[in-house]
Design brief:
α5 crosses α7, α5 crosses α8 and α6 crosses α7. By secondary structure, the chain is of the alpha+beta class. It has 9 helices and 12 strands.
Length: about 260
């Protein structure tokens, strides 16, 4: 069941019980994918949205010599890929880091649903904007932070994102990432990652054991990371009757006309 996906969309728009049931129907066909497999391939045509329901994946770019840069983590409740309203060709790959249970939603089905359930489309569209906000934060992190700051910032972001879908508590969360994964995400070597994690541990900011991240004092880690988190707080869309006069609701036809103009 796409509980995490529904919970995430509900942070952006007030989904009705009928909306939630519609999302369940959209994401009802699921399959488990083994670790180290691609869900999306850079350059391939795609007219569907892939939703991760369980497990972790990553969006990445890879050079011909094998070097890889992780450009985003895809966690339970996250969607990735293209649909009929987006470019048909994806310019990045998405690979599984753990076993992943994923649902694939055809773009046509998403657009058809948008005509009768506009709140779902609004929530989905705002979620796409949130992904862009995360990407901008990562870009800024590369230019502004030290390795210690980058990793601390990334850990704060992961905990905050997982809390939003009920997968992290006040003490921490599951972190099924290797030091190599972290290095490919923040742009430093595995040796440097190891040294930085040891520093964070020695400072009492984190503990890592058997893929479990413990954060004894989130405020202290946040201070080291200079982590604001405002970019992760959703702007919730109100119902139609609360919308100012002259503002047209966002539906599939409206969105399609905007993108084609």
């Amino acid at each position: 069941m796409p509980h995490h996906f529904i919970r995430k969309l509900g942070r952006y728009a007030p989904l009705s019980p009928d909306d939630e049931e519609t999302v369940r129907r959209l994401a009802h066909e699921t399959a488990w994918v083994d670790p180290n497999r691609d869900l999306l391939i850079d350059g391939a045509e795609s007219r569907e949205v892939c939703v991760v329901l369980d497990g972790w994946a990553c969006a990445y770019k890879q050079l011909e010599d094998g070097r890889r840069q992780i450009i985003g983590f895809v966690m339970p409740g996250d969607a990735c890929g293209a649909a009929a309203v987006f470019p048909d060709v994806v310019n990045y790959s998405v690979g599984t880091l753990t076993a992943v249970r994923a649902a694939r939603i055809p773009g046509r089905a998403l657009l058809a649903t948008a005509e009768t359930h506009p709140r779902i489309l609004r929530a989905f569209w705002l979620d796409r904007l949130a992904v862009s906000a995360i990407q901008r934060e990562w870009t800024a992190s590369f230019g502004l932070y030290t390795a210690r700051g980058r990793i601390a910032h990334l850990l704060c972001e992961i905990v905050t994102r997982l809390r939003a879908v009920g997968l992290a508590d006040e003490d921490g969360c599951l972190l099924p990432l290797t030091q190599e994964d972290l290095g490919e995400a923040v742009g430093i070597s595995t040796v440097h990652v190891n040294r930085t994690l040891q520093d964070l541990r020695a400072s009492g900011l984190i503990a890592l054991k058997r893929q479990q991240l413990v954060v004894p004092d989130f405020a202290a880690l946040r201070a080291v990371a200079q982590f604001d988190g405002a970019y992760l707080r959703p702007v919730r869309v109100r119902d139609d009757h609360d919308r100012p006069a002259g503002i047209e609701p966002l539906t599939g036809s409206v969105l399609g006309s905007v993108l084609s103009s």
